[in-house]
Write a structure and sequence with these properties.
The structure holds two protein chains of two kinds.
Chain A lengths: L14 H11 L12 E5 L3 H13 L2 E5 L17 E2 L11 H11 L6 H21 L14 E2 L6 E4 L5 H19 L2 E4 L2 E9 L2 E9 L5 E5 L2 E4 L20 H8 L4 E2 L4 E7 L22 E5 L17 E2 L1 H5 L9 H13 L7 E2 L2 E2 L2 E4 L1 H7 L1 H19 L8 E10 L2 E2 L12 E3 L17 H22 L11 H18 L8 H16 L2 E2 L1 H21 L11 H25 L8 E2 L13 H4 L1 E6 L8 E6 L14
Helix pairs in contact in A: 1-4, 2-5, 2-11, 3-4, 4-11, 9-10, 13-14, 13-15, 14-15
Chain B lengths: L1 E8 L8 E8 L6 H14 L22 E2 L2 E2 L21 E5 L8 E3 L2 E2 L2 H8 L21 H11 L6 H5 L6 H12 L10 H11 L10 H5 L7 H12 L1
Parallel strand pairs in B: 1-5
Antiparallel strand pairs in B: 1-2, 3-4, 3-5, 6-7
The chains are: A alpha+beta, B alpha+beta.
């Protein structure tokens, strides 16, 4: 691998004018010439669908791909709580600067100032766009848009559509995309998964896809490739991600030279429904907006943990977040809440089902909120979440407190991108959760939808155009030798998966084992020795996987076992990089705590002098020896301080 | 709990399918799809091909999962999707018949998976509000009465799973169309396009769905409990022109 200059191409000057000036500096393509350019977009969730619709409207030839049977099923749809925007409709002192500041602080000073400011700046246009598309956000009786407050913020800037904000925003983007499909500017491929990236002379010029129905491998060539393929939370096996969410597209790009940034920055969400048994296939998140009205507690005494919550007297309840963080109480950021819940359960004060001998759960109680605001008000706000909980846990949260436990929810790490959202491969862009930008070491609630849509509607259309303006359109009627080679690579890999020498175990069996290793070593709290043994375990298990994975059926027809195996094979490689990254980062920061770097009173210790950088990893040809590039973070406008939510 | 399962297996759209029998022992806290996962693990271990079925989010919102369980789309627990059914809901059943959606417009791809592309074509025919990225005005310029917005939201919750089609004796997609029309055309932003209902219904016909003759089976199985009153709303818009 050649040496590489890591340049974020961040504009200079005053923060407020950077994006405006940058947009003016970007090159544009004459409307008449746009149809000569081909754009490939992989993944059609919020970022992908929004980018496809916008680039289609501009007149480019767009080709989109998703593994689901429709773009409307992308996992953006499951985001519940809301989307932040600095509208200041509540007149409570919000501004672009405040949203910028909260996001930088929430990310524990591990994100780029320029990117985050742009995000805050674009937030208001997203709301305008969504409302015009018919997204039915919650409204006041006056007819104007309603807001609620959310973790990590002291203003009410979150727009929401009951507990289904992600669904409504995705449907908006999906419909905009559908219009472009009808107009012929977008050609869409459902049930089609990217297998590899095709590069010509070092530039991204296409992809290999596998038609999941026929098993057919195909190459698609273009002038630019955009990955909006989501996060890699499913490396943990149990997460709140949809079952199909995977890291394969991003990982294949990584192995072709795209740097992977901050892979160990994963977010553990505090308010998930605890695991109930060994057969469980996924965890379900409940919006953290529940923390606005719910109070989190655990029994003060271990003896009370087996009792029904109703039988535990008020004075025997420990409202531990309110006790530990009186200023923010139940609204502390996700990482702080998650770690506090883990701490309580590690002390043996957890409640609910025991998994491997330990009760993993605490109460989230609405009794007081119902008393103060009335049953109707609480039902109006959280009705669908309560229904969901009732279906899953077979308990009624209106009468008995919910049980919650943290689960992997979001990955801040992802493909390294510059200010233009271009990866380290020329012509390969990444948007949404697939890139690393904007959230630093921890994402604030209601910011994922904001980032996906900012990237998709507003950033990528400008920066992709700028890139295309500097390219001569590729003749896609020709066949290139690089296409043939890529097709061959993909076909070989599938043959290898289908024909393990000693097939014994199902792909899921391997995945469950991998998940346990990575959750224990690279979850909320990390430790040198544990990470080191995890790396050894991952390598051993990975070797076994390629020897023993058992896939029945054929590769020439729909085969979900094969699809899963291919994704798990990539998780095995990514998992090692996550542990290496976590090992290198000798500090506690954002979502993760290093046991060696905790203060005496249990608080996370960040080390800005040594670790104020983005860790961008390059594949070296040997998975165990990746090359680290450091992008130093420069804080010109916000001075990093120790987060204090007490 | 031990169940005798009869599961529809079919190699491809053009081959003949049939029920295959299996037996499984699972706990009542297992979800319905996790029960099928467990069965698939056993099948693979016994060198057999896993049963193909659609799923993704497993929290009732993506609309991927789609099984007919003992004759009812999405199973017996009302107001929710297949993935949110738990085996405790089937404690008093000994046998379970598991089938795909059945409708001419939805050819079977494999086993329990059908092709729902026709729903895409319906949305593409006009199931959107035209607004070019970047051209929207300030969001609070147009107030929308809360009850109008709430009603739009109620129909916007459709997840496009197509249980309504599977339950309808005519295999009609009228509820799906009406939900989209009600969502968009009752909001001030969506009132510009007066032909939305017509366009969507025409696409529905072209895609091979039947018409509505008021069986109301659709609303009974809708996991989001979308009401047939949306059809009334649509008809009103249709005749107002």
């Amino acid at each position: 691998m050649s040496d590489f200059e890591l340049d974020s191409h961040t504009p200079k000057g005053s923060l407020e004018t950077r994006w405006t000036q940058h947009k003016f500096d970007l090159k544009i393509v004459n409307p008449a010439n746009r149809k000569k350019y081909n754009v490939i977009i992989v993944g059609t969730g919020l970022a992908g669908a929004a980018a496809a619709a916008s680039l289609g409207e501009m007149g480019y030839n767009v080709k989109t791909f998703c593994f689901q049977d429709s773009p409307r099923r992308a996992h953006s749809i499951a985001a519940q709580g809301g989307i932040n925007a600095a509208k200041n409709y509540q007149n409570d002192g919000d501004s672009v600067w405040r949203l910028f500041y909260d996001t930088i602080k929430g990310g524990d000073y591990r994100a780029r100032e320029s990117n985050v400011f742009r995000l805050a700046e674009l937030s208001t246009s997203i709301i305008d766009q969504a409302v015009a598309q018919g997204v039915p956000f919650a409204r006041e009786y006056s007819g104007y848009l309603a807001n609620r407050s959310f973790g990590g913020a002291q203003v009410s800037r979150t727009f929401y559509a009951r507990g289904q904000t992600g669904q409504q925003l995705l449907i908006g983007a999906y419909q905009a995309m559908s219009k472009q499909i009808d107009e012929g500017t977008i050609t869409h491929h459902s049930r089609c998964e990217m297998q590899d990236l095709i590069k010509i002379n070092g530039k991204a010029k296409g992809i290999v896809s596998r038609d999941l129905v026929t098993g057919k491998l195909e190459s698609h060539m273009a002038d630019v490739v955009v990955l909006c393929t989501g996060g890699y939370g499913n490396v943990f096996y149990l997460s709140t991600n949809a079952k199909g969410c995977n890291a394969s597209a991003a990982w294949r790009a990584h192995k072709q030279g795209a740097l992977f940034a901050n892979p160990s920055f994963t977010q553990i969400h505090p308010t998930c429904i605890p695991q109930a048994g060994e057969l469980q296939s996924k965890l379900t998140l409940m919006s953290e907006s529940l923390r606005n009205d719910g109070r989190i507690w655990a029994p003060k005494n271990k003896e009370d943990c087996d009792k029904n919550p109703e039988e535990i007297a008020e004075q025997d309840r420990d409202y531990f977040l309110e006790r530990m963080y009186p200023a923010f109480g139940n609204l502390v950021p996700r990482d702080i809440a998650s770690r506090a819940v883990k701490l309580i359960c590690d002390e043996g004060r957890g409640v609910g089902h025991a998994i491997e001998g330990k009760k993993l759960g605490v109460y989230l109680d609405f009794a007081n909120a119902i008393k103060v605001h009335g049953l109707d008000a609480i039902s109006e706000k959280y009705g669908n979440l309560f229904d969901m909980y009732t279906h899953i846990a077979a308990e009624d949260p209106y009468t008995t407190p919910m049980r919650i436990y943290p689960a992997v929810h979001y990955t801040m790490g992802g493909l390294w991108v510059d200010y233009n959202l271009m990866t380290s491969i020329d012509g390969l862009f990444a948007g949404g959760e697939a890139n690393f930008s904007d959230h630093g070491a921890n994402r604030l609630g209601a910011s994922a939808l904001m980032q996906g849509l900012a990237d998709g509607y507003f950033v990528l259309p400008s920066t992709v155009s700028n890139y295309l303006a500097q390219q001569k359109p590729l003749d896609i009627t020709k066949t290139y030798p690089e296409e043939e080679q890529a097709l061959q690579r993909c076909s070989d890999r599938i043959k290898q998966l289908m024909n393990a020498p000693n097939p014994q175990k199902t792909p899921d069996e391997f995945h469950r084992k991998l998940g346990k290793i990575i959750w224990n070593a690279c979850g909320m709290a990390r430790e040198k020795s544990v990470l080191e043994s995890a790396i050894a375990d991952i390598k051993t298990l990975r070797e076994q996987f390629w020897q023993q994975v058992k896939i029945t059926g054929s590769d020439e027809t729909l085969n979900q076992t094969l699809e899963r195996a291919g994704r798990i094979a990539d998780f095995f490689e990514l998992a090692e990089l996550m542990c290496i990254d976590a090992l290198t980062r000798e500090e506690s920061c954002g979502c993760h705590a290093r046991e060696e770097h905790i203060t005496d009173d249990g608080e996370a210790q960040r080390h800005d002098d040594e670790f104020s950088y983005v860790a961008a990893w390059q594949y070296s040809g040997n998975l165990s020896v990746p090359v680290l590039y450091k992008e130093e973070l420069d804080f010109e406008f916000v001075r990093p301080t120790t987060r204090n939510y007490r | 709990m031990i169940y005798k399962l009869h599961i529809w297996r079919q190699e491809s759209a053009n081959s003949k399918g049939d029920f295959e029998q299996h037996e499984i022992d699972v706990s009542e806290d297992t979800s319905f799809l996790e029960m099928l996962d467990a069965l698939n693990e056993q099948l693979i271990e016994n060198d057999k091909e896993a049963i193909a079925f659609d799923f993704d989010c497993r929290e009732g919102i993506c609309g991927s999962c789609n099984l007919v369980i003992n004759g009812t789309p999405h199973g017996k627990h009302r107001g929710t999707t297949t993935c949110q059914q738990y085996m405790r809901d089937y404690a008093d059943e000994a046998e379970l018949w598991i089938e795909p959606w059945r409708a001419t417009a939805f050819p079977i791809i494999k086993d329990l998976i059908v092709d729902r592309t026709p729903f895409e074509k319906i949305i593409q025919a006009g199931g959107y509000i035209e607004i070019r990225t970047g051209s929207a005005g300030e969001a609070n310029t147009i107030p929308v009465a809360k009850e109008v917005s709430d009603a739009a939201f109620d129909s916007a919750t459709c997840i496009g799973c197509a249980a309504c089609v599977a339950a309808c004796p005519n295999a009609s997609a009228t509820l799906f169309v009406a939900a989209k029309v009600t969502h968009l055309s009752t909001l001030p932003q969506g009132q510009i396009d007066k032909k939305r209902a017509e366009k969507l219904l025409e696409a529905m016909d072209e895609q091979g769905f039947g018409g509505c003759s008021n069986y109301r089976e659709c609303e009974r199985v809708c996991p989001k409990e979308i009401s047939v009153s949306t059809i009334t709303t649509m008809n009103k818009l249709l005749y107002q022109g």
